[in-house]
Design a protein that fits this description.
2 copies of one chain form a homodimer. Chain A has helices at about 5-15, 25-35, 40-65, 75-80, 80-100, 105-130, 135-160, 165-195, 195-200, 205-210, 215-220, 225-235, 245-255, 255-275, 285-295; strands spanning about 70, 70-75. Chain A has a single domain, classed as Farnesyl Diphosphate Synthase (Orthogonal Bundle), CATH 1.10.600. The first copy, chain A, is an all-alpha fold. Chain A starts with 6 loop residues before the first helix and ends with a helix. The interface between A and B is large, with 41 and 41 residues.
Chain lengths: ~300, ~300
């Protein structure tokens, strides 16, 4: 994050110091160790993964006008949209510089592909927002691209850096992909069900932006005429009043939408765990299995 | 630019179809040919250069709230800021994917470094905006980073792809760097002196944003007390009235600031031309020398 332009480490440091779960870089580190890697390259590559993630957070918060991130004021709230966009660009470029220093074209291929897929997913999400016709398949396409691809890439490069057979990298990628989908499903449930102080971001953001996350997709599919009118007004037309979020939560609960989305997350979690079957039992494998449980049971 | 998400090629295509001078990719093509390169790799790399440039344009127009680009409504005006930020990210990632396909770590190093320097330069520009204390050295630092680095990188990779001795790549980089500085100096003069229909972007944008470009830097250095008050109100406090742009142009003219900035551009142009001394005369060399004249004499 170093730069002679002081605002860059300052702004990037604000996001990084705020914490976050550091899940993605941890996946790179753990995947490399699961494959028996004993060098130090995975440290730099885990940094690349977190830089790419941080860059997308900075741009997301601008795109979504988010006020809170990791329990602190978001960078765009503190410094405005302009530096947030540009420091995102900087971190993104720095990630590629670090990959070049590492010198693996295979890693560069994996992470450049993941980056363009993330951007595609974010655009797709914009297009499905406020569109009640969005179904479960379209929703899954969005979260696979915007979230799960980077989880998958983070895991895969851990295998690649260890120089192990392709089957192991494939298994790690599959683990990361299913874990990432489960993670985002839970994220989307938490946006309606978490306690704000625990979550570290604003509750109800998805609702206020009219995002078609799975809970809403399920509730809309089961809505009667009155409920449909509610969703049309709040999600499609974004005409919201203060008590609408409570009403939305009540409808999601009445239709079991939050429980069912969580069940879907659990199924993807099981798929993630199964993907690691080809690895023998080890402390690091048990940690990666615990990560699955954490992602599903987390309250933040 | 292809993507299953139709908005991506649509928005990117809008920017590309609007034209532009295509100077940067042309520099890669011409530099490769000047070095005797006869393959096809320079085509893909020139595309990477233009993608990186287009990504920065999309983000710049969001950051600057620009309404016009290349004579058409800017992408942020047509589709809003969100898709502009995200399609910028997409093009940027695609550029790196294309470089990975090309397979040269040296090219990846040059363009990833140029990209992070551009972002640094853009942040630096934000920080010097509205700051009357900005001097000529700080201004040159900004334009070197935000503009000239990509010109230099575009030229250098032309030499790298040809596999010629380092001295030739160095000479091409020096040509690109000086040309880029000259180009941006002229750009900053045109923002006060061009005819809007010819320029293809809004006249007076820099003034309205309070950017400290060289003409203003020079005029501020020569200002009397009344003039200083004018610059403080318009550039520092951004309290502008309708006739202030005319008044600014009058002051720049009175202090020869536009002529002098143009003279500085000419000097950098001569430096660019001299950098090519190590190459024997050839049609392609003559074209690269003509490019210098074009960049200085252009009206758009």
């Amino acid at each position: 994050m170093q730069s002679p332009v002081a605002l860059i480490p300052q702004l990037a440091g604000h996001v990084v110091a705020a914490g976050g779960k550091r899940l993605r870089p941890m996946l790179t580190l753990a995947a490399a160790r699961l494959c028996g890697y004993e060098g130090r390259r995975h440290l730099g590559l885990a940094t690349c993964v977190e830089f790419i993630h941080t860059a997308t957070l900075l741009h997301d918060d601008v795109v979504d006008d988010s006020a809170l991130r990791r329990g602190l004021a978001s960078a765009n709230t503190v410094w405005g949209n302009k530096p947030s966009v540009l420091v995102g660009d900087f971190l993104f470029s720095r990630a590629f510089e670090l990959m070049v220093e590492d010198g693996s074209l295979e890693v560069l291929a994996i992470l450049s592909r993941a980056s363009s897929t993330i951007a595609e997913g974010e655009v797709r999400q914009l297009l499905t927002s406020n569109d009640l016709a969005t179904g479960e398949a379209a929703y899954l396409d969005v979260i696979r691209a915007k979230t799960a691809e980077l989880f998958a890439a983070a895991c895969r490069i851990g295998g690649v850096v260890a120089g192990r057979p392709r089957a192991e990298s494939d298994a790690l990628e599959e683990y990361g992909m299913s874990l990432g989908i489960a993670f985002q499903l839970v994220d989307d449930v938490l946006d309606y069900s978490a306690r704000q102080a625990t979550l570290g971001k604003t509750i109800g953001d998805d609702f206020r932006e009219g995002k078609m996350t799975l809970p809403v997709v399920l509730a809309v599919a089961r809505a009667d005429a009155t409920e449909r009118a509610f969703w049309r007004r709040t999600i499609e037309d974004l005409e919201q009043e203060e008590r609408d979020l409570d009403e939305a939560v009540a409808l999601l609960t009445a239709h079991d939408a939050l429980t069912e989305a969580t069940d879907r997350a659990k199924a993807f979690g099981q798929q993630a765990a199964r993907a690691l079957d080809c690895f023998p039992d080890s402390p690091i494998k048990r940690i990666l299995l615990e990560v699955v449980d954490f992602c599903i049971e987390r309250a933040f």
